[in-house]
Every structure is written in C-alpha cells, then in structure tokens.
Write a structure and sequence with these properties.
Layout: H1 2-6, E1 9-16, H2 22-30, E2 49-54, E3 57-66, H3 75-89, E4 93-98, H4 104-115, E5 120-124, H5 132-150, E6 155-157, E7 165-168, E8 173-176, H6 183-245, H7 251-258, H8 261-270, H9 277-294, H10 296-310, H11 312-316, H12 321-342, H13 351-363, H14 366-379, H15 385-388
Parallel strand pairs: 1-3, 1-4, 4-5, 5-6
Antiparallel strand pairs: 2-3, 7-8
Helix pairs in contact: 6-8, 6-12, 7-9, 7-12, 8-9, 8-12, 10-12, 12-13
The chain binds guanosine-5'-triphosphate and magnesium ion.
Magnesium ion (MG) is lined by residues 22-23, 43-44, 66.
C-alpha cells in the first residue's frame, strides 16, 4: 500500500453486471483487444489487469482491472462475484458499467461501495442501442437514482463496442461497424485523477488498512472464542468427573465448587486480561452466589434431572445427577465469563444477573440439554447410550 501511494499507482476497477460490456470498455480504453468479450454472460472469469496510459494524465501509473460480472447463475459464479466485490473494494476509482436502468443487483453494491467512500463513475454503456430520446430518459433516471450517494455528476455515457449499422454503399446496402466511443469516459477519468488523485490514493490506503485490521480483529476474535470454549469444556468435564467420584452435598456447595476461579483466570488470559487469583476467586464466588439467589441451581437440577431420568444413561448412572449439574454450572459460568471478557469486561445492561439469565435461557432448550447429556455420557460416565440398555 505504501508503494502504491509513493509511486502513485492507481487501480481502476471495472465492475458491474454480466455482459454490461465491462471487458469491451477496457478494450476500448486500451485501444486493443485485451480481454475476451462475448454476448453470453460469464465471459470474464478472473480479475485480469492491464497497464493503461491515458492521454492527458501523466502523474502516476494506471492499471485497469476487469472483473467477472454480478448476477450470473450458479455456485461458481457466486465465488467469482465475491472476488469481484473484493476487487471493487480495493479500487482507487471504480467504473461501474451498466447497459440499462439500474437493477437491484447493481444498485445495492454500488450504493454500498459509494457509502464506503469509494469514488466511482457510473458508465452507461451500449448507448448506441437506444434511440436518442430513450437514452436520454435512461440517463435522467440513472442520475436520479444515484445522485443521493454519488454526487452531482456521477455519470458518463459511452458505446464501447457499437453494433454494426447498415449504410448505403455506392452500389448496394452495406454494413459498417462504428468505432468505439469512450472519449468522454477517458476524459472523465483523467479529470478525476488529475484533481482528486492523490487524495483518492490516500483515502483508499486508509480504507484498505481498515479492512485489513477489521479482518484481523475478526480472526483474532474467532480464535479467542474457540480457545476459551475449549477451556470451558475441559473444566466442565473435569468438574463433572470429580463430582461423580466425590459427590458434593447441597446445592449451594455444588455451585460454589463448580465455578472454578482458575477457569476465570484462563479465560481472561485468552482475552489478554490479567486477573489475580484473588480477584478471580471473588468473581467466581459472586457468580455462584448470584446463580443460587436466582434459583438457577435448582432449576438446572430439575431440568437436567428430568432429562437424565428419561434417558437410558440415567438408568445406568442414577446417582450422576449432581455431577451432571455440577458440570453444567461450570459450563454456564464459563459461557457467561466468555461473554463478559469478549465484551471488554462488561456484563451488559442487565448486569451479571442479566448475563446469566440470557445464557441460561438459551441453554434450557431441548437440543442443548440432549447434546450436553450425550457428551456427559461420553466423557464422564464412559458409556455409549446403546450399551447402557443392557445395564453394563
Ligand atoms: N451494441 C453494443 N454492444 C456492446 C457494447 N459494448 C459491449 N457490447 C456487447 O455486449 C456483449 C458483452 O460484452 P462484454 O464486454 O463481454 O461484457 P462483460 O461485461 O465483460 O461480460 P462478462 O465478462 O460476461 O461479465 C458483447 O457481445 C459486446 O460486443 C456497446 O457499446 N454497444
Ligand atoms: Mg468480461
């Protein structure tokens, strides 16, 4: 990015629906057949790039990037479209090619890119196909639609590859192919780059850097979530296992024993928050007390107990309810602490109690309970549900 800025390397991306004439526009601007064109959509498959020299502009290097069209059909095209959007987002200047009034599939990405601050020219191509009055009506309509987010002068009309026309020859009817008409477009590109080029480059470097840091943040968050879930899972099943062997009497003691301060420390560490053992103990104890006060422990015992009795696992491991509940309370506390650390150590509007309530309500559901018990059977009681039928 720094290199692009220093060398004034401009990236002009040509973007739009399939068969609007994107490749033809590039060929016409270059004055040679650089890319394949065809009446069928889906001709351009890759983002191809071409060096470009523009009359009236010599303050930097230009490259034109062709993209696959929007709105083709099929899964391969969805990936190509994604790639095209990616390229469009990296453009210093966007040429958005249409060949009629805007369709929804065009309007959305164009509006999104313009609102992102992307400088764009709306290119109305194939103007040769319309009688002048119709072309003028389309131009007026296009201006009206994009004026709100693209500014006062958003549009250029061109005919990158005009259709052949019949001409009267000296002796017989003949056809003739008019030359491409992209002069206005080339002038507009030169004018925009001449007056705003440097600031476009700088703004785009910022935009690209922001996209990279957003992506990095997403990746880091995903990794943190995964690591902290692994930690919670480990504590969950260790707790259940220990309690299965050494039962803890009483609901209050169960909750207190289930919420391990070391788990709090480990989750904090994943989110780069250093917590002393004392502070973690305090938080763990407070969470246990709030859970008890809220009646979560009793409720969990009821729900899990019922499900356990109904399952074949329950038949085998009748005395396992407390262990399962202990494991579950660890899990609940772990998830609540993950939420807390993932939100910059904030419990949210409802405080600690609200956070517990939110998680608990999600986990009351049948699928969660079934899955939890299945995992418990697997990890703690070491029986597959099908074997337990025979009372092994
Ligand atoms: N009449 C007329 N036809 C044009 C014009 N520009 C392009 N075409 C034709 O439109 C068809 C599609 O042109 P392409 O340049 O391949 O369009 P594209 O947008 O690159 O298409 P994909 O790569 O498939 O997305 C071709 O048959 C071109 O000859 C124009 O200005 N006037
Ligand atoms: Mg093409």
């Amino acid at each position: 990015m720094a290199g692009d800025l220093a060398a004034k390397r401009y990236t002009i991306v040509v973007f739009g629906t399939g068969s609007a004439g994107k490749t033809s526009v590039i060929n016409a601007l270059l004055g040679r057949t650089a890319g394949l064109t065809d009446p069928v959509t889906g001709t351009t498959k890759e983002g191809e790039q071409f060096g470009y020299t523009l009359d009236g502009f010599d303050d930097g290097q230009l490259r034109l990037i062709d993209t696959p069209g929007l709105s083709e059909i099929g899964p391969a095209s969805a990936m190509r479209e994604e790639r095209a959007r990616e390229l469009a987002a990296q453009a210093d200047l966007l040429l958005f090619v249409v060949d009629q009034d805007l369709r929804d599939i065009e309007y959305r990405p164009l509006a999104a890119l313009a609102r992102l601050g992307k400088r764009a020219i709306l290119v109305f191509n194939k103007s040769d196909l319309y009688p002048p009055a119709d072309a003028a009506a389309i131009v007026a309509r296009l201006r009206e639609r994009v004026g709100e987010f693209m500014g006062a002068d958003p549009l250029v009309v061109c005919a990158a590859a005009p259709a052949s026309v019949i001409v009267r020859g000296s002796s017989r009817m003949d056809t003739e192919t008019p030359p491409p008409d992209v002069g206005d477009l080339a002038d507009r590109i030169a004018a925009i780059l001449g007056s705003e080029g440097r600031s476009l480059l700088a703004a785009n470097v910022l935009l690209r850097a922001k996209r990279i840091s957003d992506k990095a943040r997403e990746t880091i968050n995903a990794a943190r979530m995964q690591r902290s879930r692994t930690i919670v899972s480990r504590f969950t099943w260790t707790t259940a296992g220990v309690m299965f062997v050494n039962p803890v009497p009483g609901l209050g003691a169960l909750a207190t024993a289930a919420i391990n301060y070391q788990m709090v420390c480990e989750i904090g560490k994943v989110f780069r928050v250093a917590i002393s053992a004392d502070a973690a103990k305090l938080m763990a104890r407070e969470l246990a007390q709030v859970m008890i006060k809220m009646g979560v422990v009793g409720l969990a015992t009821e729900i899990l107990g019922k499900a356990l009795k109904a399952s074949v696992v329950g038949y085998l491991a009748g005395g396992a309810i407390d262990a399962v509940v202990g494991g579950y309370l660890t899990r609940l506390a772990g998830d609540v602490f993950i939420d807390y650390f993932a939100h910059d150590q904030n419990w949210g509007e409802g405080g600690m109690q609200g956070a517990i309530e939110q998680r608990f309500n999600l986990q009351k559901r049948g699928e969660f309970v079934t899955e939890f018990l299945r995992e418990a059977a697997d990890r703690v009681f070491k029986v597959a549900p099908s074997e337990s039928k025979h009372g092994t």
